[in-house]
Design brief:
With 192 residues, the protein is mainly α. It has helices at residues 3-24, 30-46, 57-75, 84-90, 95-111, 117-120, 150-153, 156-166, 169-172, 177-188. The longest helix is centred in the N-terminal third of the chain and has 22 residues, at 3-24.
Length: 192
């Protein structure tokens, strides 16, 4: 299935669940609705979001509008209400940031040996070509492979190292996955 086909299928599934949640929204609390949306909607958005890196802006807007709609349903607000403050209040990263979050989390797990070997073999530590140019954070960087096509830049093998190297060093060197996730989410929120 192509990425556009995957986006179309995901959007159809999310729309189905959003309509059903909307129908029962007045009978449930905000907390219950939030849990429903997280389990039925956000789980579908997150299912393959590591593969969605670099999708077209049209597909990204389509999925983002569904996340915005879900936030409005949680708070029982209409379309005229801006979704940005709602996403912040719910602690939901916008879709593009969610995709980056997932890729960086996979890179962190790969560096720390928490991923299967078929993924970790693509995360190669950066080794500078000259010894005297070595900086202190080189051991925390990943080598970015050369790609021949534009589509290759969107693949995990190229995207994860590029995004990982763009992270501030204090986040890259965090010792626990819990602290890494928390700091990464905080780092990604201001860019939303």
């Amino acid at each position: 299935m192509s990425m556009t086909g995957h986006v179309k299928h995901t959007a159809k599934s999310i729309n189905f669940h959003l309509r059903n949640i909307y129908r029962i929204r007045r009978y449930i609390t905000v907390d219950s609705c939030h849990k429903l949306v997280r389990s039925l909607i956000l789980s579908r958005l997150d299912y393959s979001n590591a593969m969605m890196y670099g999708i077209t802006s049209k597909d990204l807007k389509k999925l983002q509008s569904l996340q915005n709609r879900a936030a409005r349903i949680v708070f029982r607000l209409d379309r005229r209400h801006s979704s940005a403050p709602l996403l912040r209040e719910l602690h939901w990263l916008p879709l593009e940031s969610r995709i980056v979050f997932k890729l960086m989390l996979l890179a962190y797990k790969g560096i720390h040996g928490l991923l299967p070997s078929y993924l970790t073999e693509y995360l190669i530590p950066y080794v500078p070509s000259r010894e005297n140019l070595r900086s202190g954070d080189d051991k925390l960087r990943l080598a970015i492979p050369r790609t021949k096509r534009t589509l290759g830049d969107k693949a995990f093998t190229a995207a994860a190292p590029r995004l990982w190297n763009s992270l501030p060093i204090h986040i890259r060197q965090l010792p626990s996955i819990h602290r890494f996730k928390k700091s990464l989410k905080t780092h990604l929120f201001p860019t939303c």
